[in-house]
Structure formats: C-alpha cells, structure tokens
C-alpha cells in the first residue's frame, strides 16, 4: 500500500534503515530485519536491523572508546554541538512530525508538536552543559582546599518507549551528551525510525564517532541486546522509560555492577474534580491530559474522581466534548485521535471496558472498536460508575477511556487516589486555596497538576515515586542524573 502523500518525507535520507555504531551506518551482524508498520493500516512501510548481542557489544565498545575524548571536550564546545543538533531538529520539524505520525499513528499536528517538545529538551541541556558547576567547601582546618566536582558517569544505555519516539530519546540523549557521557540506545521496536532520524541529525551536527550509538531490535531480541549492556561493567548508567515489571528487571540485573539508574515507569494517575472547581476548566484540563496521543501517555489520567455535588454536570460537559472528537488517520488533517499503536493495545482497552461494564459501569460515550476506520482504532469513551475493583482502576488502560467515580469527601478521595502502588502524576481542580495545599501535600506522586492538565516542560523535573520509578528527567536535576560527584581535597597549603 502506498503512503498518503501528506506523510511523505521531503528528505528520504532521514530513513537510514541501519544501526549507527562508531560513526557508521551498519546492518545487523546476523543480517536479520525488523518490519515497521503504520498502525493506521498495519501496512509495512520500512525495515530496520533486528540486532543481536554482537551488535549491542559493538555499540558499547565504540561508546567506551569514545568516552575519554568526549568527556575532555570543553563544556562550551559540547554545548555548541548540541545547539546545532537542536537547530537541525527544528529545521526538519515537518519531516520528523510526519515520520512520527507514520510509525506511531498520532495526528500530524501532535507529531509536529512532539518534535518541538523534543527540541526543547535538546536546547535546555545544551545550555545546562555550561552550568555543571561544582562547589568549593570551606575547609575545617587551615592549609587545605576542599572541592566537590561534577563528572560524567560514563557510558549510558538508553532504552526508550514507543509512545513519544522523539521526545523520549531527546530527553535522555541530550543530558547525557551535555554531561560528557557517551551513549548506546535501543528505541522501541514499534517506533525505531524517528530515533534513527534524530541520530542522523546528531551526526550532521558534529557529534563525534562513537559518542552516540543506536541499535534496533525486535521484541523477541530486545532482551538479548539489553542483557549485554546490563552485564557490561563499562556501562555505568541505565535510563529507561516503560513498564514497571521491565524496570524492576533492569534494577535487579544492574545490581551486579551497581549501575546508576533512571527509571520512569508505569502510572495510574488520578484526576480529581472538587465541588468548588471551575467545571469548564476542569473538562478542558481533562481533555488535554487524557486524550493527548489517544490516551497513550504515562501521565494521562487513568482514574477520574468527581465530587457528588458536581458529578452529573461534569459528566454532561465532558461527554459533549468527547463525542465531538474526530477519530481518523494522521493523513487526515481533521483527525484528533489516531489509531492505537497495535492490536494488543486495542485488545487491552476493550478488555478494560468490558470488565467495567460487567462490574456495573455504564457507557456514556463510545465504548467500542472502530473497525471501519482500520484495525487499531477505538472510540473515545466515557464510563460512569467506575470503582476500585475494576481493571481500569488497577491497570494502566493506555487508551482513550475515561472511567469516572463519584466521591463524597476530600479525605475519601485522597485515600482512593493514593491507593495504588504507582505514583507518577496526579491532577486536581479546586478553587479553595487551603484545600489546594492540603491535597497537593497529601498526594503520593512525583508530579502534581493543580488546575492544569498539561504538565511537562523541559525546565521541570519529570519522574515518579513508589513503583513509578526514580530519577528525574528535564530540569537541572535531569543533568545531575548523568553525573557523579568527586570530592577533591588538597592539603599542605599552609
């Protein structure tokens, strides 16, 4: 099947279709290939290498060999290279946005927006590279100087998810390069093309050979690739965004070599609407938070709690907005919700909805597959009568489904919001200043949105608590996650 003209690339060499190791574009050593398909149709439109242990080893060898010289590059010079990468990303925003939409399925406007979002992290960390300041510590005795210096941790292995193929790799690679680390990376098997295109642009920006390496692999061979990096003591840090079970596996397997870890894992975000909230604003906040990328985000609300006094009015307003959403392929400019990433994702969404209905919930809007549009579409859905026993309350749905639970009191809803092993993001809407601070303090999450549905920004720390992981991306804290502190003490100066 030919590709829609609106998603064709202006620059075809942004599809290198190879691994990038030690400054060279290479096929997998074993000669195997992985198909990449468009989730709107499930039609294959590209191939990338299906790598194995040998390719992963070659990437580490290159990164390790390049580390000594890259860390010695002055911070200002590293920043200039990263700035050039940022400029190239923005220059190719349209092609990168189209590529995201082709392999991930999100509407083209969102694809373009993700490129700008990814670029913001690259720009931020280019500027942070020259601000990795240490400390002069007042010495307790005369004749001594005491310093705390920040140094790059070494070779970093980055493992990225499919839902934001540009943003997730940018906010891992950019701080690593800024800190003076070298990188090996494995993008998600569903969306490897955007990552390869970004690495192509990094090469053009002047990132030296061996500093940035990327290998692609199928779901079946990903453990083989990653296990090489976990076992290799030269890899000093793992940064991963994905599921909690995989994050726990990485933590266990990293213990033998005591690698530093940044884990941004699963979520089960509550979204709370109190009786004193501005209801139209709360609806718009939920639309922004929930339906971005079709609900396929780690911070999208998974459980919606509405206080009894405003429940019916809120549902009425929300249902009208959700019913008006346009569902379709990225090639249609009117589309607001695209396909889910694959058939497994649609099956999970439908399982959650059917479970909720069997347990007493009711569909207000949606609640069905949309096979007439293609194999991976699901209607934006609003459910009422949800409760904590339903699968949609216990697991991440990762789709365009809003399950609503009625609540009576503040203490009741805070307890329900915190009754989960996860703690990535939470949202609530209220105009009571005292309540705002009580609830913000009480919520057990790494991120809290108050009267706001769009949270992420390059200047803000992004990450969770509990089983949603540890470490932070973005902000000055994001750079620190790629550094360690060396204490230097010089005596005999008296």
Automatic annotation (TrEMBL):
Cited SUPFAM superfamilies: ALDH-like (SSF53720)
Active site: 264
UniProt keyword list: Oxidoreductase
Superkingdom field: Bacteria
PROSITE patterns the UniProt entry points to: ALDEHYDE_DEHYDR_CYS, ALDEHYDE_DEHYDR_GLU
InterPro entries linked to this entry: Ald_DH/histidinol_DH, Ald_DH_C, Ald_DH_CS_CYS, Ald_DH_CS_GLU, Ald_DH_N, Aldehyde_DH_dom, Aldehyde_DH_Superfamily
Domain Aldehyde dehydrogenase, residue spans: 25-488
Family: Belongs to the aldehyde dehydrogenase family.
PANTHER family: SUCCINATE-SEMIALDEHYDE DEHYDROGENASE, MITOCHONDRIAL
The protein, known as: NAD-dependent succinate-semialdehyde dehydrogenase
Organism lineage: Bacteria, Pseudomonadati, Pseudomonadota, Betaproteobacteria, Burkholderiales
């Amino acid at each position: 099947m030919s590709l829609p003209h609106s998603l064709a690339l202006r620059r075809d060499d942004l599809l290198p279709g190879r691994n990038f190791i030690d400054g060279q574009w290479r096929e997998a050593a074993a000669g195997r290939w992985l198909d990449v398909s468009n989730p709107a149709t499930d039609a294959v439109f590209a191939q990338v290498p299906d790598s194995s242990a040998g390719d992963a080893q070659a990437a580490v060898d290159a990164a390790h060999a390049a580390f000594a010289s890259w860390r010695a590059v002055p911070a200002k010079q590293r920043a200039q290279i990263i700035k050039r990468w940022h400029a190239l990303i923005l220059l190719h925003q349209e092609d990168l946005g189209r590529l995201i939409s082709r392999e991930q399925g999100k509407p083209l406007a969102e694809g373009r927006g993700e490129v700008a979002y990814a670029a913001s992290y690259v720009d931020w960390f280019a500027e942070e590279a020259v601000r990795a300041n240490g400390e002069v510590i007042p010495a307790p005795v005369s004749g001594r100087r005491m310093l705390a210096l920040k140094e790059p941790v070494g070779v970093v292995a980055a493992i990225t998810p499919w839902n934001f193929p540009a943003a997730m790799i940018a906010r891992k690679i950019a701080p690593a390069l800024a800190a003076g680390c070298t990188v090996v990376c494995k993008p998600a098997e569903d969306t490897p093309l955007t990552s390869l295109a970004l690495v192509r642009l990094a090469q053009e920006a002047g990132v030296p050979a061996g500093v940035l390496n990327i290998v692609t692999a199928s779901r079946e061979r990903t453990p083989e690739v990653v296990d090489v990096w976990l076992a290799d003591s030269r890899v000093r840090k793992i940064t991963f965004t994905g599921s909690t079970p995989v994050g726990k596996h990485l933590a266990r397997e990293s213990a033998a070599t005591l690698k530093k870890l940044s884990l941004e894992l699963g979520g089960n975000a509550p979204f709370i609407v109190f009786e004193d909230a501005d209801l139209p604003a709360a609806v718009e906040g939920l639309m922004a938070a929930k339906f971005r990328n079709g609900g396929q985000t780690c911070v999208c609300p998974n459980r919606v709690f509405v206080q009894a006094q405003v429940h019916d009015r809120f549902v009425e307003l929300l249902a009208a907005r959700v019913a008006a959403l346009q569902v379709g392929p990225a090639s249609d400019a009117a589309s607001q919700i695209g396909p889910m990433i694959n058939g497994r994702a649609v099956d999970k969404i439908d399982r959650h909805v059917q479970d909720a209905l069997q347990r007493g919930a009711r569909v207000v809007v949606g609640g069905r597959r949309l096979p007439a549009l293609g194999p991976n579409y699901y209607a934006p859905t609003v459910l009422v009568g949800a409760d904590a026993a339903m699968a949609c309350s216990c697991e991440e749905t990762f789709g365009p489904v809003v399950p609503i639970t009625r609540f009576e009191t503040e203490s009741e809803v805070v307890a329900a919001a915190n009754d989960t092993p996860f703690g990535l993001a939470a949202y609530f809407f209220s105009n009571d200043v005292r309540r705002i601070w009580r609830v913000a303090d009480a919520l057990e999450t790494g991120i809290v949105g108050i009267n706001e549905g769009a949270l992420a920004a390059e200047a803000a720390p992004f990450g969770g608590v509990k089983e949603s992981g540890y470490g932070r991306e973005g902000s000055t804290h994001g750079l620190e996650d790629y550094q360690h502190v060396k204490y230097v003490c010089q005596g005999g100066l008296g």
